[in-house]
Write a structure and sequence with these properties.
The structure holds 2 protein chains of 2 kinds. Chain A is of the alpha/beta class. Chain A folds into 2 domains: about 1-180, Rossmann fold; about 265-370, Rossmann fold (3-Layer(aba) Sandwich). Helices cover about 35% and strands about 20% of the residues of chain A. In chain A, the strands form 3 sheets. In chain A, strands 2, 3, 4, 5, 6, 7, 8 and 14 form an 8-stranded mixed beta sheet that branches. A 5-stranded mixed beta sheet of chain A has the order 11-13-12-15-16, sandwiched between helices. The longest helix of chain A is centred in the middle third of the chain and has 18 residues, at about 140-160. Chain A is globular, with a radius of gyration of 21 Å. In chain A, about 60% of the residues are buried. Chain B is built from 15 helices and 15 strands. The chains are: A alpha/beta, B alpha/beta. At the A-B interface, strand 1, strand 3, helix 3, helix 4 and strand 9 of A face strand 2, helix 2, helix 4, helix 10 and strand 11 of B.
């Protein structure tokens, strides 16, 4: 049955339904209402919510709790992601399952707190030292805020990696009619844990893309856990082979499973010369633009990208196949366009539709600048 | 329950320690081991959280759980562990460097009184990176970044922890014979505890300052600082208090049920329409927009609502954009509204550009007492002033204008709006009375 709620409420409820039992965060517009909702509701389910003294502490609490068996989430905006950076690297290195919500706002720096943007798309992927992969999902509707939160928790358990939910002020704070839970709500898997009574080696791998099972602090095994380069027993090491194997594993476990993570919606039209590509809030304007163009008798294909990182290259290439022009619409100056450009052939023209004044990209702007007006 | 007898908590396979000859870390870790042997804690119930620097190498030499984290953040990880598993003993090993970079976390952990035991390996400089000064380097000391003598005063870690609210505070030197006993006391005390252990860094601080064992005592004396237990309080420990007061208590409570909207009214909307309600802070513009939208959903429509107001929410404009449609709404922005409700000067000022874009097909519903505006749109002026009681209550004008609009122009029946109002019984009485009074606007 319908409700009238915003994206942040859908994210918070998605977290509760995903079995999240630990949340820590620091207030920041436009992400605060996730913290407020969970501070009110999560303790009712026995869950813990902490407001950290800052973003760094909040991430630290989350990592400590995740390694003690909790299913954790935090939420912030761009300036908070800056402060999360060192601990994001830690969560990658230690292979910590966690969900990080980034309700994007206008940058750079403190920018404009109450103004939406999609300026963190490369930052989320590359914003920590070493450059190892993470997963980034971007919802376009309130219902998707709910379903992709569930999906983010599931992927974080599957791959033991921080999974970002990249939303924005508009998706998070615009109320819309929504059915929660929608019929297609994904399942969230249980954490893979090492069986009691057997020897536990925290980072033992049979192959590089394998994801090792966990064992929590206070559980049946003694656990070692470290932010430093380590061997399979989690002892700090300078052994070149061990370090090489670990680092390649951190990349391989994501990159060899791109198809499993890949999530797009392709609405392709035979004979279309133009493909519209977008994500997040701007994908909604793109769909409206595409529908208008079709009503006007034009043939046009549309691609909404939900899994921004790792790049769903195969699905994007399939959608691009045969078109002359690819139009990428986003609330930044071309952060995802450069990824699309790298997938295009020499004969394909890639056009960016951008806006960085805080206003939404409208369907008419996409039609005009995309050559469909 | 497992019974065990631990003769040592040291990881003999990994010994010896990697520290420089004469470094105080040897004695401190030996004392920690002795304390653990004395307390006979289950090693699986103990987590040693280490910070960065030479101290950060320590966890490897124990058979307990180990967590080696980022510089200065050890207390935050320890807090997460203790919150998740209050039954565990969570020990933090940190240097004076970590206390500098993570000072904020130290203050707040003490203030919360989270049950972690912090042992500070305080050797007055950064021993791993090259002997730079730290927050505890004494005045006039020579370090690799204070070649001409240190002119910043040192931080008293114990006094800082004490005044921040720590339950247990003590100071010792690594040369103290009773160090294992005091370490055991720290571990046994509930709540946040800190032991500041003064020691020698033989790689840098000792040669740079001709500093020795006796100088530790002399420095303490010159600063008028005492050793031993400085504070032993019994404030309730945070992770237990949280379970008692906030979550995890007896009996599970239900989360607040969502407000479901069952469509059961007709609507007469043709194409998609967008509405802009322009008001002032504190005039319930957002709430009116939500009720209008919910009424639409109850009448089988799709709805979206975007609000715009300054960060200082009790000042200036408040604007709600509502879109109603028979089909799914993709683009939630409003380039040009079809209907504008302009109720207050703040909203008028903020929405002049949109008024200018209105065409003859559009409608401007405007408070009759606002200055006249030029527009191509059809104008409907509403005068709230003559309405007794409700006409004086500005915070109901938006809802009254919407009700009047629904009566005059349709879209969906007023009953749908009334049902939306009744969804929040605590506000329903006044909202319903305002809707009733709005008849006089027509």
């Amino acid at each position: 049955m319908p409700e009238f709620i915003d994206g942040n409420e859908a994210i918070a409820r998605g977290a509760i339904d995903a079995g999240c039992d630990f949340f820590a965060g620091y207030p920041i517009t436009p992400a605060t209402s996730i913290l407020l909702h969970l501070a009110r509701e999560l303790p009712k389910t026995g869950g813990i919510v902490l407001q950290g003294e800052d973003e760094i502490a909040s991430m630290g609490f989350c990592i400590g709790a995740a390694m003690s068996g909790k299913r954790v989430m935090t939420a912030t905006s761009g300036p908070g992601i800056s402060l999360y950076s060192e601990n994001i690297g830690f969560a990658i290195m230690g292979e910590v399952p966690m969900v990080i919500v980034d309700v994007q706002r206008m940058g750079p720096s403190t920018g404009a707190a109450t103004t939406g943007a999609q300026g963190d798309i490369q930052f989320l992927r590359w914003g920590t030292s070493g450059g190892y992969p993470v997963i980034v999902l971007a919802p376009t509707t309130v219902e998707e805020c709910y379903t992709l939160t569930l999906r983010a928790f599931d992927l974080s358990e599957r791959f033991r990696v921080p999974v970002f939910l990249a939303t924005d002020k508009e998706t998070s704070l615009t109320k819309t009619m929504a059915n929660i839970p929608p019929q297609d709500a994904p399942q969230v898997r249980e954490r893979a844990t090492a069986p009691a009574g057997e020897d536990f080696v925290p980072y033992r791998l049979e192959n590089l893309s394998q994801v090792p099972a966990m064992s929590p602090f206070g559980g049946p095994h003694t656990l070692r856990f470290t932010t430093s380069s380590h061997d399979e027993e989690a002892y700090l090491t300078k052994d070149e082979q061990a370090i090489d194997r670990l680092n390649r594993h951190l990349a391989a476990k994501i990159e060899e499973h791109v198809e499993e993570i890949s999530h797009v919606k392709a609405d392709l039209q035979k004979g279309a010369e133009t493909l519209l590509v977008s994500y997040g809030i701007t994908a909604r304007a793109m769909v409206e633009a595409g529908n208008r163009a079709r009503k006007a008798g034009k043939r046009v294909s549309m691609l909404t990208v939900y899994s921004l990182w790792p790049i769903p290259g195969k699905a994007i290439r399939q959608a691009m196949d045969g078109v002359k022009r690819v139009v990428v619409a986003e609330l930044n100056l071309g952060q995802y366009r450069r990824e699309i450009q790298s997938l295009a052939s020499d004969r394909q023209e890639v056009i960016g539709v951008h806006r960085v004044d805080g206003k939404l990209i409208s369907p008419s702007q996409i039609l005009k600048e995309g050559g469909l007006a | 329950m497992t019974t065990f007898k631990m003769d040592t908590y040291l990881n003999e396979e990994k010994m010896p320690y990697p520290f420089c000859p004469g470094c105080g870390h040897h004695t401190i870790l030996d004392s920690l081991n002795e304390a653990l042997v004395k307390l006979q804690l289950d090693p699986q119930e103990v987590v040693i959280v280490t910070d960065i620097g030479c101290t950060g190498l320590s966890d490897k030499y124990f058979v307990t759980n180990a967590f080696h984290g980022l510089h200065g953040r050890s207390v935050t990880y320890a807090t997460g562990i203790k919150m998740a598993r209050p039954e565990l003993t969570v020990i933090v090993l940190i240097g004076d460097g970590g206390c500098g970079i993570g000072g904020h976390h130290l203050l707040n952990a003490a203030r919360r009184n989270i049950g972690v035991n912090v042992f500070v390996f305080n050797n007055f400089n950064y021993g791993m990176t090259g002997g730079e000064h730290s927050i505890t380097s004494p005045l006039d000391s020579v370090t690799t970044t204070t070649r001409y003598g240190h002119i910043e005063r040192p931080l008293d870690l114990c006094a800082t922890a004490d005044i921040s609210g720590a339950n247990f505070v003590a100071r010792a030197s690594s040369f103290d014979k009773d160090l294992p006993d005091i370490v055991a006391k720290v571990i046994q005390h509930e709540g946040f505890s800190l032991l500041d252990i003064w020691e020698l860094c033989t790689a840098y601080y000792v040669p740079n300052n001709r500093f020795g064992r006796k100088d530790i005592e002399a420095t303490l004396e010159s600063l008028n600082l005492e050793k031993g237990v400085l504070k032993a309080d019994d404030r309730p420990e945070f992770s237990h208090l949280y379970r008692e007061r906030v979550a995890g208590g007896e009996g599970e409570k239900k989360v607040t049920p969502p407000t479901k909207l069952k469509p059961r009214y007709e609507n007469s909307l043709g194409r998609q329409k967008s509405f802009l309600i322009a008001g002032a802070a504190g005039t319930k513009i957002g709430s009116a927009g939500t009720l209008f939208s919910q009424g639409g959903i109850l009448a089988g429509l799709h709805a979206t609502q975007r609000n715009d107001y300054p960060v200082t929410i009790k000042t200036r404009h408040s604007i709600a954009e509502v879109i109603l449609s028979r089909e799914e709404i993709y683009f939630t922005g409003v380039e040009k509204p079809d209907v504008m409700f302009v109720l207050f000067p703040e909203g008028l000022n903020k929405s002049r550009d949109r008024i200018a874009r209105l065409t003859e097909d559009d409608l401007l519903v405007i408070n009759a007492n606002l200055p006249k505006v030029e527009t191509k749109a059809k104008t409907w002026a509403l005068d709230f002033k003559p309405i007794r009681r409700w006409g004086r209550k500005k915070e109901y004008w938006a809802l009254m204008a919407i009700a009047a609009y629904l009566r005059e122009y349709g879209t969906y029946p007023l009953d749908a709006l009334i049902e939306a109002i009744n969804l929040k019984p605590q506000y329903a009485k006044d909202n319903l009375a305002a809707v009733e009074a709005s008849v006089e606007l027509g």
